[in-house]
Every structure is written in C-alpha cells, then in structure tokens.
Specification:
Order of helices and strands: HHHHHHHHHEEHEH
Strand order of the largest sheet: 1-2-3
Distance between the termini: 58 Å
Shape: elongated
Helix content: over 70%
Structural class: mainly alpha
Largest sheet: 3 strands, mixed
Radius of gyration: 26 Å
Number of helices: 11
Length: about 325
C-alpha cells in the first residue's frame, strides 16, 4: 500500500504541476540573475561573445515570462465558454517566446558578431568574464539536471527516452525549459572558447565568431520550438501505440462489444479530448444505452490526461461490418 500511495502521488497531476512550477520558477529567477551578471561582464570586457550570452539570458528570461503566462492560462479549469479547457493557450504563449528567441535574440547576437569581425584592438582582460561564465555554468547545470530528472520520470511513464519525450510531449513549457537550459550550457561553452581564443591568439574574430554561433544556436532552437508549437496549435492526435492501448482498455468494459471509431487530440499540456463510437453488447433499451454511454464517458474522464470524452453508438454499417454481413438494401 505504501508503494502504491507513493506512485499515486508521483503520477498525480497536481504533484507534477507543483514540480513543473518549481522548475520554471528556478529557470526564471536564475536567468534574470545571470542576465544582470553577464551584462555587467560584457560592459567590462567588451566581449562580443559575452554580450551575445547576455542577450541570450535576457531573451531566455523574457521567454520564461511567456511560459509562466502560458502555464497559468493552461491550468484554468474548463467552463461553459471553453468546455475543452484553456490548454491551447499554453501553445500560443510558448510560440511567442520561441519567436522572441528566434527573431530578436538570434538577430542581435549575429549582428553583434558581424560588427566586431574586423575590429582591431588588443585582447582585453577576460578574468571577470571567465568568473561570470563559470558561475553561470554551475547554476545552469543545476537547473538542467533538475529539469532532466523531471523529464526522465515523465518519459518513464510512457516508456520513452528523454530526448524523444522532449520532442513529442504536449507540455510546451517543459520542452522550452529543457531546451533553454541545454542551449544555455552550449552557449556558455562557446562564449568561453571565443574569449579564450581571442586572448591567446589576439584575433578578435574568435570572439566575434562566438557571438555569431550563439546567435545561430538561438535561431535554430527558436525555429524548432516554433514548429512544434505550430503543430500542437493545428492539432496533434494521440500516437498510434497509445491510441491502440486506449481502444483495448475501452473494449475491456463488459458492456462494450467493439470500438468502431476512436479519436483523441491534444488540447493542452497532457490534456486530451476523446471521441468514440461503440457497439454495446446485447440489445438494451434506449434508457439503458444512454446510461452505459454516460458511464463510459465518466470512466474515461477519470484518467488524469482526459479533459473531455464523448461516446456515441456505432452507425448501422459499423454493426454490419462487425457481424460480418451488409445491411439490407
């Protein structure tokens, strides 16, 4: 019983929401602090790569504000005006954050690198920059490890790898946090390498190249997130494996002979709308049929991922196919 209770708590949506809220809050606070430090270091050192990292952190902070807005909007309960809930708003807010990263962040970082490409100046002292980047690396690693642990547990529920779950999940906030932490780690390494090579060789182009690479990194990550959020806004159905599992689960109901039609689509972070047509066993009266269908809807909506379920009787031709003969006429 103790193990069951522990498992129930871990899988309970409210418990997951609390942990996701903590991960987003940590990323938001850390990003703002790092942005201030990197901006100061960029001013002191004059490094283009450090300036690009500062822009990256400010853009990341702005994006995370959009994520928080999406998170709050998506968790609002459904009402008469929105019977499927407000989950799709999370895709909209995440899309805004992705556009900011791709358009503003990438453009500023790449342009800064280009303008610094032919600048002739002696290598500055980068000690302050290295110290800020080291501190940023430690903090970013802690944030990334925390996010990966959360993703690993969510991926294990679906027997998926971490990478595949990040790409496939309907939780756009979670995907943005993990992606943001990952490219932030890469950006820190690029900025440190650009400054070090500039200092060692005296060639400012290494520092400028670091800024350009960070811009390309932000642009690529932003485009990927834009495309994924676009897909979920357009409508993403339940994957085939999980669809088959759902159909088998419904057909295990003692009063269901067969499921002739099943459709499920994501309408928010881990939230689904489900529609199905079924053949009811026997020949119950109409009132009993209505009760059975209502019971099926209620039982399906007990699942933590189902926002709304609608069941109907199968069409006459579905009965005919199921019983191996065509309808008369």
């Amino acid at each position: 019983m103790r193990e069951f209770t522990r498992l129930h708590r871990r899988l309970h949506p409210q418990a997951q929401a609390e942990r996701l809220r903590t991960a987003v809050a940590l990323a938001l606070a850390g990003g703002a602090v790092m942005a201030v430090f990197k901006t100061a270091a960029a001013v002191i050192t004059g490094s283009a790569a450090m300036a690009a990292e500062a822009v990256h952190s400010w853009i990341g902070t702005a994006s995370e504000i959009f994520l928080v807005a999406g998170y709050l909007a998506a968790r609002r309960p459904s009402d008469d005006a929105h019977p499927l809930g407000y989950g799709r708003e999370s895709f909209v807010w995440s899309l805004f954050g992705s556009i900011v990263m791709c358009v503003v962040g990438a453009q500023v970082a790449i342009w800064r690198g280009i303008t610094q490409w032919y600048v002739i100046e002696p290598p500055p002292q980068y000690q302050v920059g290295y110290a800020v980047l080291l501190f940023s690396l430690v903090f970013q690693c802690l944030s990334f490890v925390r996010a990966v642990r959360f993703v690993r547990e969510r991926a294990a529920e679906r027997d998926l790898g971490i990478f595949k779950h990040v790409l496939d999940t309907s939780d756009s906030q979670l995907r943005a946090v993990v992606t943001g932490d990952f490219i932030a780690l890469i950006g820190i390494v690029i900025a440190a390498a650009g400054m070090a090579l500039h200092q060692i060789t005296g060639e400012v182009r290494y520092d400028a190249l670091g800024s350009i690479l960070i811009g390309v990194l932000m642009g690529g990550a932003g485009l990927m997130l834009i495309n994924l959020n676009r897909r979920f806004l357009a409508g993403v159905p339940l994957p085939d494996e999980r669809r088959e599992m759902a159909v088998r689960a419904i057909e295990q109901h003692p009063q269901v002979e067969r499921v002739t039609y099943f459709f499920a689509e994501f309408v928010g972070p881990d939230r689904l709308v489900v529609a199905a047509r079924v053949i009811v066993a026997g020949d119950p009266p109409q009132t009993e049929l209505a009760r059975i269908l209502h019971e099926l809807e209620e039982r399906v909506m007990e699942h933590k991922a189902v926002e709304r379920a609608v069941f109907a009787l199968a069409a006459p031709e579905d009965f005919a196919k199921a019983r191996g003969h065509l309808p008369p006429g």
